[in-house]
């Protein structure tokens, strides 16, 4: 069951999927994640291309172009759904923290 494997996303998975809101290639994704996080999250090529392959197989992204070794991808509806589910899960955790720790009051 793909849903169980992707019930929660790793930090790298979350950022990779966010990058694919618009069509992009692997190098673009690595740069975007670094820029988006101020360099706090870095994704190496091994991790990136393994996850891209998994995401294609799961239907979360689709390949849009191939130029030599360069491949471009974009998020699918299924990918948007899993990304939104993770976002909501993280919001609940933040809310739980704020409630329990007395933050945000």
Domain count, please report it.
Answer: 1
The CATH class: Mainly Alpha
Q: List the secondary-structure elements in sequence, H or E.
A: HHEHHEEH
Query: What's the total helix number?
Result: 5
Which strand order does the major sheet show? Answer: 1-3-2
Q: CA-to-CA gap between the ends?
A: 41 Å
The major pleated sheet works out as: 3 strands, antiparallel
Radius of gyration equals 15 Å
Percentage of β-strand residues:
5-15%
Helix fraction by DSSP (H/I, runs of at least 4) = 55-70%
Task: Summarize the helices and strands and which ones pair or pack.
Blueprint: H1 2-5, H2 11-19, E1 24-25, H3 26-36, H4 45-58, E2 61-67, E3 70-75, H5 77-101
Antiparallel strand pairs: 1-3, 2-3
Helix pairs in contact: 2-3
Notes on the structure:
The protein is α+β, with helices and mostly antiparallel strands and 105 residues long. It has a single domain (11-95), classed as Arc Repressor Mutant, subunit A (Orthogonal Bundle). The protein has five helices and three strands. The chain has helices spanning 2-5, 11-19, 26-36, 45-58, 77-101, and strands at 24-25, 61-67, 70-75. It has a three-stranded antiparallel β-sheet with strand order 1-3-2. The longest helix is centred in the last third of the chain and has 25 residues, at 77-101. The radius of gyration is 15 Å and the shape is globular. The N and C termini lie far apart (41 Å).
């Amino acid at each position: 069951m793909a849903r169980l494997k992707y019930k929660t996303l790793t930090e790298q998975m979350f950022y990779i999927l966010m990058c694919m809101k618009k069509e992009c290639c692997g190098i673009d994704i690595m740069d975007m994640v670094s820029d988006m996080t101020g360099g706090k999250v870095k994704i190496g090529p091994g991790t990136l291309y393994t996850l891209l392959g998994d995401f294609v197989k799961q239907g979360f992204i689709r390949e849009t172009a191939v130029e030599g070794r360069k491949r471009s991808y974009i998020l699918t509806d299924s990918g948007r759904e899993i990304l939104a589910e993770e976002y909501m899960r993280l919001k609940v955790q933040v809310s739980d923290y704020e409630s329990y720790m007395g933050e945000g009051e």
